[in-house]
Specification:
Strand content: 15-25%
Largest sheet: 8 strands, mixed
Helix content: 25-40%
Structural class: alpha+beta
Number of helices: 23
Distance between the termini: 89 Å
Shape: elongated
């Protein structure tokens, strides 16, 4: 047969194989039984294949170490450990009953199942080049590798943010550590697919027993160790390899996955360990690697026990976490082997395999010092959330306050689902028109609020992993970012925190959801109906009736709810206020009325609708009406700005000529003063009044002739706050516009633009996003004034504004303006 060229590359490899690896292989019981059977049946080509394949895999695993630093994913020790563990699980009696193809596949899968953890050197370097701004690949295959890792990295914006902040602080070593972790994690997550590709490239047609090509079956078993164990039930229990010679493929798969998981391995370094990487006493991956080969272990069909003396509580907690994982795997595999044992018994094969159901943890303990005292006290204690109190916090006045937010949260979810599906359908070249309907009606004795969308919908996976988990937002997950990447979706989700669904129970005791998820072009999941009777309720899940993808959420409202006293017109108006700038058609229906809002409705809402008594007509005030049509920059709306003038020139202050009057022999001076100040134009004046008794009083009054007001929405959803809070109402880290003139503004932040909100979406939080937004808004507003003013007027106004503002964002926006038009 044609063997791998690995043995023929150079003498060093051959010598290493003969001197180091072959002796270790010959100590294996599986190998010795296989060799004896091959000698008896004259199947020597099997032994040649085993030698060649083992040398290839061992050599390949060495390639990654130099690229991954302390993230040493793999080495030959793990491969040999897996082979040893296979023997411990099977026992000598069972091994001797196995066929030559079964023994051969056990050895080959032990050495090849993780071959994908050692990618080509070029692939690792291409992945790392994502952080090289000059990276460019003309080769299509290299560009594909680059794009796949870039997509993986882009789906983890939190990690990208941490890396950027570390680099800004000059902490490049820590940033490089996270980069290495991300490359490692990418290789780990994709290693099973890569292993299949490597086998196909280098071993196609070479994994043979006599005339039977087992390459596909071999690749499937290697791939299966990274899939759900139940996938093994799809494998052939009695695969014909030759006359009277069979292989039980599910059995090989079970032994492989258990042996692999029983060897603690850095490829599965748990998250709890990474939470300690950058804190005061960091735990390095090297420290974890010391514990992956636990001091001692006992593994037999009767007991699985690890012995470990740990030097850090994170290490000890990680080992217990692994044991939990192993317990689950043992439970599933025991169920599968029970059916295999019955099958083999029916085929007159004396192969009975069994495993313990749990790991014995008696010997996992804290290391002691020379005085026999433990280095630390281990308790499985960490921050835990009280579900009842967290729900009270999220739903009570501490956070939401206004129960009407339930409608807003439902609309946010539906808008996001429709925008995601719109991007998906566009990728698949399908016609699709997103649409949402909000209904309020009485059903028998019950009042119902219903939100219906034809968005991407949900399946059981989404419900289990996101919808039912408080604080776990699908739109912050790698699942979402992967879908977004697949569909080239450009929208920014309005849903942020994963807590919105709880708000429904502020107004309702029962939540009923009918949903069906889009899976692919012309493909969707089975419909699901979910009923939840209170936030503490078990989800009642049953088959749904929905024909098309999307979600219908029905709230059975309490007798007293935010809408029960409203007229139908008032209800429609309240819904409209929540969605001032919807990205597509949203229908609002009551028993007798209907109204539709769409992407054109926002044009009806201009800054002039916010004018009130604080905006008075005055001969010394000039107003500028500024349209905001910067969709590319993510800003749409309008603004009105007031500027103080004297003789058609902008001024900071006006003192009108005083008038002296005499009343009953006494002289009085009447004065009036106007001035431009932060967010307002103010007036101070005095006057005289005469009461019923004829007494004369001199009064002094202050009032605003123009005062800043705002109405704000984010991606079409109202943010019920003001950009101009009174000083005594400004909370810590809350934003405030402080500009040297008053303005009325109605604006929607849309497109790729975004702002950070508090959890209840009632306040904008100070962040880099806000700094950029305020500067851009200042530039747009000041540009609008400059276009309407003469050059001389603008120059004089600009001088006044600069002299009377300390707001850095405003001044940066102002200084970007160049005068482009004069009238």
């Amino acid at each position: 047969m044609n063997t791998s060229p690995i043995l023929q590359q150079n003498g060093n490899i051959t010598n290493n194989y003969k001197d180091e690896y072959l002796p270790r292989l010959k100590k294996s019981l599986i190998y010795s039984v296989l060799e004896a059977k091959c000698n008896t049946t004259d199947d020597n080509e099997v032994m040649t294949l085993v030698h060649s394949a083992m040398a290839y895999s061992v050599q390949r695993t060495k390639s990654i170490i130099k690229h991954m630093g302390e993230f040493t994913l793999h080495d030959s020790d793990h491969l040999f450990n897996v082979l040893i563990l296979m023997e411990r699980l099977l026992t000598k009696e069972v091994i001797e009953q196995l066929s030559i193809p079964e023994l051969m596949l056990l050895i080959l899968t032990a050495f090849f199942h993780d071959i994908g953890m050692a990618p080509d050197e070029k692939e690792v370097l291409i992945c790392k080049s994502v952080w090289d701004l000059t990276a460019n690949y003309e080769n299509e295959e290299e560009q594909t590798v680059y794009n796949r890792f870039k997509r993986f990295y882009s789906a983890r914006p939190e990690q990208e943010e941490i890396i950027n902040k570390l680099i800004e602080k000059g902490e490049n070593t820590k940033a490089d550590t996270i980069k290495s972790y991300l490359v490692t994690e990418y290789i780990r997550q994709t290693h099973a697919d890569r292993a299949r590709a490597i086998i196909g490239k280098d071993w196609e047609g070479k994994i043979k027993f006599r005339d039977t090509d087992l390459t596909v079956e071999f690749a499937n078993i290697c791939h299966s160790h990274n899939e759900d164990a139940l996938k093994l039930l799809e494998f052939d229990k009695n695969y014909l390899c030759g006359t009277g010679i069979y292989a039980c493929l599910p059995l090989i798969g079970i032994i492989l996955r258990l042996s692999d998981i029983l060897d603690f391995d850095a490829k599965r370094t748990p998250l709890i360990l990474y939470s300690h990487l950058y804190v005061r006493h960091p735990v390095s991956i090297k420290e974890w690697n010391k514990h992956r080969a636990v001091e001692a272990w006992e593994i037999t069909p009767e007991i699985i026990q690890f012995s470990a003396k740990c030097t850090h509580p994170a290490i000890e907690a990680s080992i217990h976490e692994f044991c939990d994982l192993i317990d689950h795997e043992l439970s599933v595999c025991n169920n599968i082997t029970s059916s295999l044992n019955e099958f083999n018994k029916g085929k007159a094969r004396n192969i009975i395999v069994k495993f313990p159901f749990t790991v014995n943890r008696d010997k996992i303990e804290t290391k002691k010092d020379i005085y026999n005292q433990p280095l630390y006290t281990y308790r499985d204690t960490k921050f835990n959330l009280s579900k009842r109190q967290v729900i009270d916090l999220l739903m009570g006045t501490k956070l939401y306050g206004n129960p009407e937010v339930a409608l807003r949260e439902l609309l946010q979810n539906s808008i996001d689902a429709c925008l995601l599906r719109q991007a998906q359908e566009l990728t698949w070249h399908n016609n699709y028109a997103p649409e949402i309907t909000v209904k309020y009606y009485k059903d028998a004795t019950e009042e119902v609020l219903e939100v219906i969308d034809n968005g991407t919908g949900m399946d059981q996976y989404i419900i289990d992993n996101y919808y039912s988990k408080v604080g776990s937002s699908f739109y912050k997950s790698t699942d979402f970012y992967n879908l977004k990447s697949d569909s080239n979706a450009e929208f920014t989700p309005t849903s942020r925190f994963g807590i919105g669904i709880l708000s429904c129970f502020m107004v309702a005791d029962t939540l009923i959801v009918d949903t069906r998820r889009v899976l692919g072009r012309h493909d969707s999941s089975a419909p699901i109906n979910v009923t939840v009777e209170g936030q503490e309720s078990i989800f009642w899940i049953k088959p749904g009736l929905r024909d098309a993808p999307g979600t219908t959420t029905k709230l059975i409202l309490r007798k007293v709810n935010p809408w029960d006293k409203m007229t139908e017109a008032e209800f429609i108006k309240s819904v409209e206020s929540v969605i001032p700038n919807p990205p597509f058609k949203i229908n609002i229906e009551t028993s007798q009325q209907k109204k539709t809002r769409d992407e054109n409705s926002f044009k009806e809402v201009t800054a002039s609708v916010l004018k009130d008594y604080t905006w008075k007509e005055d001969g010394n005030i000039r107003t500028f009406e500024i349209p905001i049509e910067e969709k590319e920059n993510g800003l749409v709306g309008s603004a009105i700005i007031a500027i103080l003038e004297s003789q058609n020139k902008p001024v900071k202050e006006i003192k009108l000529p005083s008038i002296d009057i005499t009343v009953e022999g006494e002289s009085y001076t009447l004065e009036k003063k106007l001035w431009l100040s932060e967010n307002s134009i103010s007036q101070e004046s005095n006057s005289i009044t005469v009461n019923d008794e004829g007494e004369i009083h001199k009064d002094s009054t202050n009032r605003d002739l123009a005062k800043s007001k705002s109405r704000l929405s984010l991606h079409g959803i109202e943010v019920p706050t003001t950009l101009f809070p009174e000083p005594w109402r400004v909370k810590f880290n809350q934003v405030k516009i402080s500009w040297p003139f008053p303005l009325i503004i109605v604006v929607d932040i849309c497109g790729k633009s975004d702002l950070d909100l508090n959890s209840s979406r009632t306040e904008i939080i100070m962040s880099e996003k806000w700094v950029g937004f305020e500067e851009e808004l200042a530039f747009i507003i000041c540009s609008g004034i400059a276009k309407e003013a003469t050059l001389q007027y603008w120059d004089e106004l600009k001088t006044i504004l600069i002299a009377n503002s300390k707001n850095e964002q405003f001044l940066r926006g102002l200084n970007r303006v160049t005068h482009v038009h004069s009238i």
